[in-house]
Amino acid sequence: MNNMRSTLATVWRIAAPYFRSEDKFAGRLLLAAVILIELTVVGINVLLNQWNNRFYTALQEKSWDTFVREMGIFCLLATIYIALAVYQLYLNQWLQIRWRNWLTNRYLGEWLHGANHYRMQLQGDAADNPDQRIAEDVRMFVDQTLNISVQFLNAVVTLASFVAILWGLSAESPLTLFGNEFHIPGYLVWGALIYAMLGTWLTFRIGQPLVGLAFRQQRFEADFRFNLVRVRENSEQIALLHGESVEQERLSDRFGRVVANWYQIMIVTKRLTAFSSSYAQAAVVFPYVLTAPAYFAGKIQLGGMMQTASAFSSVQQALSFFITIYRAFADWRAVIARLDGFEESIAGADRLTESIPSIEVVRTDDGETVELRRLLVKLPNGTPLVAADELRIHSRERVLVTGPSGAGKSTLFRAIAGIWPFGEGLVTVPARARLMMLPQRPYFPIGSLKAAIVYPAKPDAFSAPQVQQVLTAVGLPQLASRLEEDAHWNRMLSLGEQQRLGLARALLHEPEYLFLDEATASLDEASEAALYRLLADKLKGTTTVSIGHRSTLEAFHDGRVVLDRDGDHFAARAQPKHVTVP
């Protein structure tokens, strides 16, 4: 019971904000229309139940006129029913896509807000495969929440509508056993209730493992898809290392988990299906078993027995709602658990930025200097990595950052950018300064070459001649005619070409501070030197801070920051030139 309350509370927390959002009026109107149609459908079912009595009584009495009239009534009711069913489906789907659109945009915004997507990976959260959460689980949540809710409403209203009918029919056809009549008020209702309660209890006992199995199945499927994508994205390296057999073994192992869990689902589903099918078949004849003695004793006519059987079936199905939707309910709970975990992971990433102590990045109007004060950058497990105190990088300086591999040079850049939350201290950045970080492997969104180069600006932020000019400047004139070509540029181009494109991006954006994290490491020394001279010539007002291991880079920088071992961590210290330690 507590688990059910928790599940419903989670559903309310995820679902309710849409109906209070900017799209609330359309959402509420569509939901009200779907509910109204469902209530009308139940009303038509009540009319059809009454029609059963009249129609079968006309057959028993061989009344042609009544038969013809009832056939006309049936056609009218059936036409209305079909029209309602069609428009209910249409409005339901309309509501689904609006709701899904809003919820998807909400999750995208929260996931991408303030580098949450990056911090979620750093904290090793349980929200595996966020792509599936946003693309697949949101769709399933909206679809299943609406369908299960509408079915539950149907069950409640049907029960309320047909219990009174079945109670009255119980008095007209008293329980007859061995020729003796037993006047038990509403015995047909009690019979349906006991039958449904027994079936629900057994269904829960048999099908309970499906909830956990469905959750694991979705996780294993997503994990398998993710590893397939990883192989596709790294196909060149795998081919060069002849790692196909190893990858096949790894992928087979991942898929083996899918298969093993599926076998467990099959076993539980077989048991559940065997019971639910037996339950459903027994439900067909059960009302006739109860009413047949009264019929053969002449207490009721054929129409009365058919109406009773129909009413009993409606009440029994309403009471057996849980049995009918148990498999869908298990999948639904698994989806809810996954979205709940996703929301918790996003909240955890937000809390990382609010934790004390933490690295604080402050925009200040004082001066034109990036300054690190009492900064201690840590690993996610709390181990100190690199420290810097009273380290200043002045405007228009060119600084080379060096140190052993693993000393924390790239992590120091992340802390300055404000995306690394682990640690303590203060980073001050000029208020109006734009910072750009270029890693060793730059990111290019899938799309046109122009959109990839000008990212994160919009494609129309720079003209085609501007982009063509910087392409030629960085040594890629052959790409100047391909600006509108759509491709996966991280896969199409060599790493050296990607690094040239990254520098072309910097030339277009002209940031006040440019941080190069081994951004030219894949180029030969001559090409690297030419590009650094290009940056010095074109970006005269830009402060350049480079991470590099080549001694040839010293010629293109005014000063150095060296990371040396200092006890259990590294310390960043400026060497005398233009980078000073007060």
Short structural summary:
The chain contains 18 helices and 15 strands.
**Overall spatial form:** elongated
Distance between the termini: 65 Å
Helix content: 55-70%
Compute the number of helices: 18
The profile of the biggest β sheet is: 11 strands, mixed
Low-confidence stretches: 578-582
Structural write-up:
- This protein has 582 residues and is of the alpha/beta class.
- Helix 2 packs parallel to helix 5 and helix 6 packs parallel to helix 10.
- The relative contact order is 0.09.
- The C terminus is likely disordered.
List the defining traits of the structure above.
alpha/beta; 63% helix; eleven-stranded mixed β-sheet; disordered C terminus; elongated; 582 residues; single chain
List the helices and strands and how they pair.
Elements: H1 2-15, H2 24-61, H3 64-112, H4 116-122, H5 130-172, E1 175-177, E2 180-182, H6 187-207, H7 209-233, H8 235-240, H9 244-296, H10 302-319, H11 321-324, H12 326-354, E3 359-364, E4 369-378, E5 384-388, E6 391-394, E7 398-402, H13 409-417, E8 423-430, E9 435-438, E10 447-448, H14 449-454, H15 464-473, E11 486-487, H16 489-492, H17 495-509, E12 513-517, H18 525-538, E13 543-547, E14 559-566, E15 569-574
Parallel strand pairs: 3-8, 5-15, 7-13, 7-14, 9-12, 12-13
Antiparallel strand pairs: 1-2, 4-5, 4-6, 4-8, 10-11, 14-15
